Amino acid sequence: MKFLFIHSRFPGNAKHLINHLIEQQHEIVVLTMKLPPNDKQFPGVRFFQYEYPNIKGDDTHPWIYDIETRVQCGEIIFHKIAALREQGFIPDIVIAHPSLGESLFIKDILPQVPLGIYCDLIINVKGQAIGFDREFDIVPQSHEVRSAQIYLHNSTYFMQMERANTAIAETRFHANSYPRPFHPKISIINSGVDTNLFKPRVDFSIQLPSVVGHYQLFTPGGAAVSAQNVTFNKGDEIITMVCRNFEPARGCHILFRILPELLQRRTRAHVILSGVDGQSFNKRPDNYESWRQQFWTEIEPKLTVEAKSRIHFVGILPEDKLASLLQLSTVNLYLSYPVIVGNELLQAMSCGCAIIASNVAPVREFIENGTNGILVDFFDKENLLERIIYLLKNDKLRHLLGMRARQFILERYDVQTRSLPTQIKWINKLFASR
Description:
By secondary structure, the protein is α/β, with parallel strands linked by helices. It folds into two domains: 2-192 and 415-432, Rossmann fold, CATH 3.40.50.2000; 205-412, 3-Layer(aba) Sandwich (Rossmann fold). Helices cover 37% and strands 17% of the residues. It has 14 helices and 15 strands. The protein has helices spanning 15-23, 65-86, 106-109, 143-163, 172-176, 252-265, 291-299, 305-308, 319-328, 343-350, 361-364, 381-393, 395-412, 415-432, and strands spanning 2-6, 27-32, 46-49, 93-96, 115-118, 166-169, 186-188, 205-212, 228-233, 238-245, 270-276, 311-313, 331-334, 355-358, 374-376. The strands form two sheets. It has an eight-stranded mixed β-sheet, with helices on both faces. A seven-stranded parallel β-sheet has the order 3-2-1-4-5-6-7, with helices on both faces. β6, α5 (172-176) and β7 form a beta-alpha-beta unit. α6 runs parallel beside α7. The mean pLDDT is 90.
């Protein structure tokens, strides 16, 4: 069978599915903005690159800037597919991620080919992330202006959903963000976790490239600049937090603001933070190069030199190093607005981490308070601080929470026994919709 995958940041959540299709010797073509670092990562797959649309913006109404970007990106994909067709490649199935409008015009050039899309989160005015954090609102406008802008912003997602044969959502929260008429099209299938890699581990140590205790930018690839290797051992008191970008939507301001007291009260604790200086939900701050710089500037006067030496920024880690970091964790934090749940939460659960997470709807699909983790109000810094210290002192509770978290993932989200078989059924259903 011939597959065409379209994803600006390939493979996204489709890595395990792609590897399965490679093993089954299907023909796979990928359109993406970012090529993989080496050809061996996905053997036999043909890659073609597309670029982010060049929007000048001078004559574009600010409320439809997103729409113009997506229309241009959809047009780019249209012409890329036309070129592939001229070369003799006509896919049996197209699977696309619609975040930049990639699937807007696929049905115009491949009308008979089944189209499946990955659901992007629909941002709504009421509830969810907008208005959730008044200090750093995602769309800092009046309610009426926000409503108009978001209506237009979401319109291209609805256009793409309307034309797709079927869709896949990682979580129920994801699926429910779409209007009810679209729900019959959406299958809720999480991409899953490699539980053989992300598993509990004892008696080991690792070295991580760390920027210790001060603000420092990262390279675009996520590696720390001017980093030094620091050795950490299983049994050290280690608090971890993993996120793609350091920004308010992932609770960075909440954590940073408790660090001075946390490190004062726990004199042997180390805090290891994995992520980079970018934006997924919050716009870049006005007066700083990054959110991390802003929050570090805020707390630095309250930190001793010794305390700074126990705060480690390690960039984005490859999966094996990330697994080791999570396996080291004494307490793992997952702080978030009510937005997309990152894979890092499920990976931490699979490693048997004792997790403290934000009590928001998408997180509650995975964490039951007191059973396989602890939930706290996102804004309650004092309670977060006390919960961390309580868990650090309570070995038995940490072990119980971690054991139950691991079992939860094994039963529902193991990639080989749960997620991948369900994704394959979804592929077969998509193919049958011709």
